[in-house]
Design a protein that fits this description.
About 20% of the residues lie in helices and about 35% in strands. It is an alpha/beta fold.
Length: about 160
């Protein structure tokens, strides 16, 4: 299973219910990695998507105790339902896309981590585990440094 996220220097991932910043190259990278795949998210991430609509050309799964149903999404009420649903798919095709609770709950299940590491502190109010510091996790690739909108960042791939 895969996890994909943009993090700042303090492992921050969100602020005030949204992304920390808008980086068009990061959004393109996210699209390239997840297109045609299965994406798993929490309710708040679903609500943050444009118009609350499912991401196109992906199988969208929402993990939420409170959401009854959502058009274009498969809703799982708990981890047991999610685990059963995910058995229908190749784990290499599953991407965890947020938010913080879903990331932190699913990190133990993931083998591949696609991090956009931003060399800045955005004053985040949502954080995830420092993935590179997890025992057994190793960096397998990183891009050159990219600068966009005054933010230095690079794409990285870690594997356990």
């Amino acid at each position: 299973m895969n996890l994909i996220v943009a993090v700042d220097e303090k492992c921050g991932i969100g602020k005030n219910g949204g992304l920390l910043t808008h980086l068009s190259n990061d959004l393109k990278y996210f699209k390239e990695k997840t297109q045609g795949k299965v994406v798993v998210m929490g309710r708040k991430t679903l609500e943050s998507l444009p118009g609350g609509k499912p991401l196109p050309n992906r199988t969208n799964i929402v993990l939420s105790e409170s959401l009854a149903e959502a058009e274009g999404y498969t809703v799982c009420k708990n981890r047991e339902e999610l685990d059963a649903e995910l058995k229908k798919y190749d784990t290499n095709d599953v991407f965890i896309i947020g938010g913080a609770k879903v990331y932190n709950d699913m990190i133990p299940e993931c083998t591949d981590f696609y991090l956009t590491f931003m060399y800045a502190d955005f004053g985040a109010d949502k954080f995830i585990t420092d993935i590179p510091k997890i025992p057994g996790v190793k960096k397998v690739w990183e891009s050159e440094m990219i600068t966009e909108n005054g933010v230095n960042y690079r794409f990285t791939h870690f594997r356990r």
